[in-house]
């Protein structure tokens, strides 16, 4: 199966806030592309709350943080993805992505990960790309194993619990 072609569409602070509020109608009206109900679901709201707060407190992060994933050829919004913030002092960015359950098992997670790897490799300020994955998330672990990520430790995430940390020098 070929990897679909996707792009990440960055969202304005107003759209991020509407998604953080779970207000799909407002977010959809303000967004540059159509949104899906999954994006405003309880599964995603915590991410949007973080990103909406970040857009206000650290506006320099806005071009880096989570946006929506579009498959333009199919005309579909299929998920969310981006980095947690602009590169830190080490040049590290952490990738995060999720695919709407209605579009899983179609290559979108791979497409988003490859897009994020490519961006990390082309941004002069980035030296390291990080993934953090729950040891129970076998689909994400299987995908990460197909790339030269190196396991560098573990961390406890207040929202997601235990995560294994993987890094790729770019």
Mean pLDDT: 96
| Proportion in β-strands | 25-35%
Number of extended strands: 7
Give Rg in angstroms: 15 Å
Distance between the termini: 27 Å
Largest sheet: 7 strands, mixed
Specify the number of helices.
Answer: 5
N-to-C SSE string, H for helix and E for strand:
EHHHEEEHEHEE
Helix content: 25-40%
> Structural class of the secondary elements?
alpha+beta
Order the strands across the largest sheet as they lie in space: 1-2-3-4-5-7-6
Point out poorly predicted stretches.
none
Shape: globular
Task: Describe the protein.
This protein has 170 residues and is α+β, with helices and mostly antiparallel strands. Helix content is 31%, strand content 28%. The chain is built from five helices and seven strands; from the N terminus they run βαααβββαβαββ. The chain has a seven-stranded mixed sheet with strand order 1-2-3-4-5-7-6, with helices on one face. Helix 1 (13-20) packs antiparallel against helix 3.
